[in-house]
Amino acid sequence: MTIKNVCCLGAGYVGGPTCSVIAYKCPNIKVTVADLSKERIAQWNSEKLPIYEPGLDKIVKECRGKNLFFSSDVQRAILDAELIFISVNTPTKNIGNGKGRAADLKYVEGAARLIAEVAKSDKIVVEKSTVPVKAADSIMKILRANQKQGISYQILSNPEFLAEGTAINDLLNADRVLIGGEETPEGQAAIEALCGIYENWIPKSKILTTNTWSSELSKLAANAMLAQRISSINSLSAVCEATGADISEVAKAIGCDTRIGAKFLQASIGFGGSCFQKDILNLVYICECLNLPEVAQYWQQVIDMNDFQKTRFTSKVIQSLFNTVSGKKICILGFAFKKNTGDTRESPAIHVANTLLDEGACIHIYDPKVEESQIFEDLSHRQNIFVYQDAYSATQGCHAIVICTEWDEFMILDFNKIYEGMMKPSYIFDGRKILDHEALIQIGFQVQTIGRKL
Ligand code: NAD
Ligand code: UGA
């Protein structure tokens, strides 16, 4: 079966970029990205896209109106499509059973019910959202219980592995594409149909097909293992600070071992982003439900270590500033959870800023891509927060600078000029290890960083 018409429910960080790349690489397929939020769709149809992602603008401009459409007419999009991606949000539940840990599947269920209500022809429904193992079973039950005569459904799992800030490159040059489905002839045919889309640009050898449950679990496992590396290196950063070892040297030494590998060993103020924490909590919850408390505790430690790192870093800032920041001006450089994105979900900068505000500090914030309104939405305080449009005015008159995001532009700032405008002694806390610490000390700064005693 050759797919000609695809739709995606959810025009977020995953649905938008993923479907833009499908449209870009498959000119013969009509791709419609549909969302219940009219506002989000209007942004996708405007000059200023709702998300910042390097390379995305160019692709959207090239395909929009040709074979890529953004629409709030979700029903129409479902009716016309042969294959439907479900790319809706799956946040952590905040009420009821599993509160604070289990994934809330209400949006996935909502999407499945909508498909069941609207569909008038056969559909391949592809779970792209990150979900607990066995979620495809629930989607299948909803679809088949509401099945109209003559219509058949196939459910596939096709988790997304893109990282924000590098999404377009990750999609164009994916390490692998994973597709799970039923082991029946119909299930295999559906897998083949989805493979046919990706084969337009991904080598066949990189398209892995598995059973549905392996595919669902692999997504949670990949995020858990990635986050575990960060927690491991961050735990060692505390040992470095206490002993005089340098975490960058340690990371390099261990990363040279090809069995360990050099990537994802950057010590930091802790990982952020919408997924690592939520997906590990989800894994922990699944393990508890499966009566595997030891496995649950093992993965919980990855989160606990991340919380420890965030708290440890912020405590260090306060202790260094004579144990009081009350009335002091502290500049936070970077508010996004990583560079090259405007996304602030679970950003460690939020923890740092809220703690300093709790202690009575006045916070100056500059981030190249985060909107002022977003910063105010994220913080629990309303006062003593000032947002600036550049790093020089943000640091003016401050007692300390805290680097929370590793934006490239922070590395080339004129720190001589910044030093002149600051209160003395002037402190820099480099939570991302991106600055030249010796040069800063030469200028006169008091410098602290992660994983190295200065
Ligand atoms: P998001 O919040 O940015 O976008 C989800 C969108 O779905 C929202 O715009 C919402 O309005 C829409 N929506 C909800 N119900 C709908 C429905 N019934 N019909 C149409 N639209 C509906 O979320 P996201 O960051 O794109 O994440 C989506 C999923 O992908 C999550 O499960 C996440 O874990 C996973 N994921 C995210 C990333 C990432 O980098 N953000 C990477 C890999 C996987
Ligand atoms: C992560 C995964 O990398 C993706 O493969 C996955 O698809 C995605 O989650 C998801 O499921 O949402 P993302 O959160 O966008 O992607 O970004 P990462 O590059 O993984 O960074 C996550 C956090 O870890 C950031 O705060 C980053 O600064 C931090 N990090 C990353 C470190 O502290 N050290 C590192 O070495 C790497």
TrEMBL record:
Q: Which InterPro entries match?
A: 6-PGluconate_DH-like_C_sf, NAD(P)-bd_dom_sf, UDP-Glc/GDP-Man, UDP-Glc/GDP-Man_DH_C, UDP-Glc/GDP-Man_DH_C_sf, UDP-Glc/GDP-Man_DH_dimer, UDP-Glc/GDP-Man_DH_N, UDPglc_DH_euk
Which reaction equation describes what this protein catalyses?
Answer: UDP-alpha-D-glucose + 2 NAD(+) + H2O = UDP-alpha-D-glucuronate + 2 NADH + 3 H(+)
Q: Which residues form the active site?
A: 275
Q: Which GO terms describe its cellular component?
A: nucleus
Q: Pathway membership of this protein?
A: Nucleotide-sugar biosynthesis; UDP-alpha-D-glucuronate biosynthesis; UDP-alpha-D-glucuronate from UDP-alpha-D-glucose: step 1/1
The UniProt keyword set, sorted, is: NAD, Oxidoreductase
Which residues take part in binding NAD(+)?
A: 10-15, 35, 40, 88-92, 129-130, 164, 275-278, 345
Give TM segment ranges.
Answer: none
Q: Which family does it belong to?
A: Belongs to the UDP-glucose/GDP-mannose dehydrogenase family.
Function summary = Involved in the biosynthesis of glycosaminoglycans; hyaluronan, chondroitin sulfate, and heparan sulfate.
Q: What is this protein called?
A: UDP-glucose 6-dehydrogenase
From which source organism is this entry? Brassicogethes aeneus (Rape pollen beetle)
